[in-house]
Design goal:
This protein has a 4-stranded antiparallel sheet, sandwiched between helices. A hairpin with a 6-residue loop joins strand 3 and strand 4. The model has no long low-confidence stretch (mean pLDDT 92). It has a single domain, classed as Hut operon positive regulatory protein HutP (3-Layer(aba) Sandwich). It is globular and about 50 Å long. The two termini are 16 Å apart. The protein has 147 residues and is an alpha+beta fold. 35% of the residues lie in helices and 29% in strands. The relative contact order is 0.23. It comes from Metabacillus endolithicus.
């Protein structure tokens, strides 16, 4: 049950998100049986961040919206990534913080054996800070969950 070194899902999600040419990176991952998508979201409300990522994942066929365990796995990966972005307190507008984030969602099997099944990773990168231009700083978060 070893992780395959060239198929680390978190690393690949971050590489996709930060890539100079994300479309080329996404095509490479898709050739290796991975499914992924990219997007952007900005908000003072965490629920809007979650909704934006879930919508992109469903629209791009990363998860099946009618299969609960897939939506559930994605939700937990998003929340884990948001914990990283918000330093453990998933609060935004209620404490006068706003985010401007790019995101990558990646699905695939990071293990050597197909029987291990798919996992999902959500990578977030952008800014967080007071809702005043120039009062933000960089942030990053990663969430990984099994499907």
């Amino acid at each position: 049950m070893a992780l395959s070194k060239n198929r680390l899902i978190g690393r690949n999600a971050i590489m996709l998100l930060l890539s100079e040419d994300p479309n080329e990176q996404l095509q490479f991952l898709q050739q290796n049986k991975w499914r992924g998508c990219l997007g952007k979201v900005g908000s003072m409300e965490a629920n809007k961040v979650v909704a934006s990522i879930e919508t992109a994942a469903k629209k791009n066929g990363i998860i099946q919206s009618d299969v609960y365990r897939e939506s559930h796995a994605l939700y937990h990966a998003i929340m884990e990534a948001l914990h990283g972005v918000t330093r453990g307190q998933v609060q935004l507008g209620s404490v006068l913080r706003t985010v401007g984030l790019s995101f990558a969602v990646l699905r695939g099997n990071p293990y050597d054996h197909d029987q291990e099944g798919d996992w999902i990773a959500v990578a977030l990168y952008g800014t967080i800070g007071a809702p005043v231009k120039g009062s933000e700083h960089e942030t990053i978060g990663l969430g990984i969950n099994h499907i």
